[in-house]
Amino acid sequence: MTDPLDLLISRRGTLRFLVGAAGSAASLPLLAWPVSARAGTLPASGTASKSALQYQDHPKGTSSCANCANFIPGKNPDAAGRCIIVAGDISPKGWCLAYAGNG
């Protein structure tokens, strides 16, 4: 006759449990994200100072804030925008050390 404990602690049951536990553990960090990040919105402005990242109001060659991945544009192309790294208003024609090209 089969022992009932063998049915509860089978290899298949153990693997199913481990896969479920691993999936649950992997999703725990998602609960720690702020609601705004889960909604897909970016912060209004970064926290690094302009001087720390050597921000300048003019481009460096063809690199400018307008074509940086960290730049959040203003209401129109010439309006000051925001940066997810640098604090304060950012000129679309500016540049800093945090520049990251869009592709």
Automatic annotation (TrEMBL):
Specific class of high-redox-potential 4Fe-4S ferredoxins. Functions in anaerobic electron transport in most purple and in some other photosynthetic bacteria and in at least one genus (Paracoccus) of halophilic, denitrifying bacteria. Residues 36-103 form the High potential iron-sulfur proteins family profile domain. Belongs to the high-potential iron-sulfur protein (HiPIP) family. It comes from Modicisalibacter muralis. Keywords: 4Fe-4S, Electron transport, Iron, Iron-sulfur, Metal-binding, Transport. This is High-potential iron-sulfur protein. GO terms for molecular function: 4 iron, 4 sulfur cluster binding; electron transfer activity; metal ion binding. GO terms for biological process: aerobic electron transport chain. It holds the Pfam family HIPIP. Homodimer.
